[in-house]
Amino acid sequence: MRRRRGRPLNGWLIVDKPSGMTSTQVVGRAKRLFDAQKVGHGGTLDPLATGLLPLAFGAATKTVPYVMDGTKVYRFTLKMGEARDSDDADGNVIGTSDVRPSDEELRAALPALTGDIMQVPPVFSALKVGGERSYDMAREGRPPELPPRPARVDRFELIERPDRDTAVFEVESGKGVYMRALARDVALACGTVGHITVLRRLRVGPFTEADAIVLDKITPNDDNAHASPELLRPVSTALADIPALALTQDEAVLLRHGQALGLVDLMGRIPQTAEEGGVVRVMDGEHVLGIGRLEDGWLKPVRIL
């Protein structure tokens, strides 16, 4: 069997993505810098966007779904008066409007776009339609009609109004919410059109801007031609937002071997924030054993690290 190229590194690297790069390009560059066998990312950012792009190395890729399920915080600038086909500044102008809503009108439009909403994704998105990517179809001049999808927006605030043409918003949301669509829709709700000119992600799950590192500042070790693995955060940091449940050594052995544990035996240790059908971070002393699900009276192993 052929050996995989690169070093078998495990952990998280929280990159402050620069504008103009795709998420895939950031992954490729980090993989080369660290000479890593396996790298993935925890949630795509548009090329125009900057901010947090968590990169998962090796075993950390097992925890990517839990990072993507975590809360995300974005800040974006809406430019009013121009609609773009991509709903951001990289697209072509497809409509204009002279209407410039007041701060009060913008704020009045936000409640309808907060909570559990139905959102029409941007046509320039990676969603598949009949086996084809929506953005490929749009680039070929045959943009598909995308149906509305459920989305969860927990907070949507007007932060700043630099001038009559622009407004800055901050959004806290779950996964799968398109900021470009929110910008487009708040403009439409106010009787005008608009698109995003600046987009920055400030938080992904447990990771914040304080955790982020700029790609250009990652330099090789003096000892070799590759970046130091010490820059990587432990795999378990991705699970910090998930309620923790402590097991005894005997219980940990059973769960590690794929056996479910009765919740009656765990009473008094189950965290109050854990929900029926929800997941918990299973602890073996100070060590994170993995992820379990509380279901039908059992703690069932979902992912053992």
TrEMBL record:
Domain Pseudouridine synthase II N-terminal: from-to ranges: 31-179
Domain tRNA pseudouridine synthase II TruB subfamily 1 C-terminal intervals: 243-305
Residue ranges constituting the tRNA pseudouridylate synthase B C-terminal domain according to the UniProt record: 180-239
EC number(s) recorded for this UniProt protein: 5.4.99.25
Record keywords: Isomerase, tRNA processing
GO molecular function, one term: RNA binding
Gene3D superfamilies: Pseudouridine synthase, PUA domain
Family classification: Belongs to the pseudouridine synthase TruB family. Type 1 subfamily.
This protein's name: tRNA pseudouridine synthase B
Gene name of the encoded protein: truB
